[in-house]
Amino acid sequence: MRGFLAARGKGTAGQEGIGVDDGPEDPAEATPALYTPQMPKDIVASGPANGWSALTPEPEELAALRDQVGPGPVVMVNLLKFKQPDGLAAMVRYGQITAPLIRRQKGEVVYAGQAGPVVAGREDWDMVILVRFPDIEAFIGLAVDPLYQSKARPLREEALERTLWMVSQPTSGAS
Fold first, then answer.
1. Which residue of 35, 77, 86, 139 is most buried, as measured by CB atoms within 10 A?
2. Helices 136-144 and 87-104: crossing angle, nearest 10°?
3. Does the pLDDT at position 23 exceed 90?
4. Where are the alpha helices (DSSP H) in the chain?
5. CB 124: neighbour CB atoms within 10 A?
6. Nearest-5° Cα angle at 7, 161 to 132
7. pLDDT per residue over 68-122, tens digit each?
8. Please, are residues 81 and 160 in contact by the beta-carbon 8 Å criterion?
C-alpha cells in the first residue's frame, strides 16, 4: 500500500495505527510535472462562515492565501477527526493519491501520527499531519491540481468529521 498514510496494527483506542509511507520510490511512478495554479490574485479572503467547505476550501478561496502568507517555506498543520467507522480507511486512500502530488510540488510529509491526550483546550483529534512546502504557491498547486480535486478531495471529505487545517511559517531565524 503506497501513500503518506499506512495502517499498521491497532492503536491505543482500538483504532488502526498510522505510519508514514511516502509512496513510490521511483520518481517515474509519481506524477511527473509541477502543477501551476492559474487563479486571479484579487480573490477576497473568506472562511467556513463565508461558504467554504469546513473540510476542504475551494480553489478560489485558496488564492487569498497569496496575500496572507509571506514568502518562503510553509508547514501545513492538519488536525483530523475521523468519521466513524470508516474515516481512517478513507484517509489512507486519500494519502495514497496525495503523496505523489505532494512530492510533485516539492513538498514532504514531515510528521504523521496519532493525536495524544489533550493537554489544554477542549478539542479532541485522531491524527496530526505536518506537510512542508517550499512556499504557499506549492501548497496551492497541490490543492487545485485536477487530480487532487477529482480524486483526493472527495476522499478527504468522506474521511473527516472535522479538521483544523492551517498554515505555519518558521519564525525569524528558524528554518
1. 139
2. 120
3. no
4. 59-62, 65-68, 87-104, 136-144, 146-147, 153-159
5. 10
6. 70
7. 999 999 999 999 999 999 999 999 999 999 999 999 999 999 999 999 999 999 9
8. yes
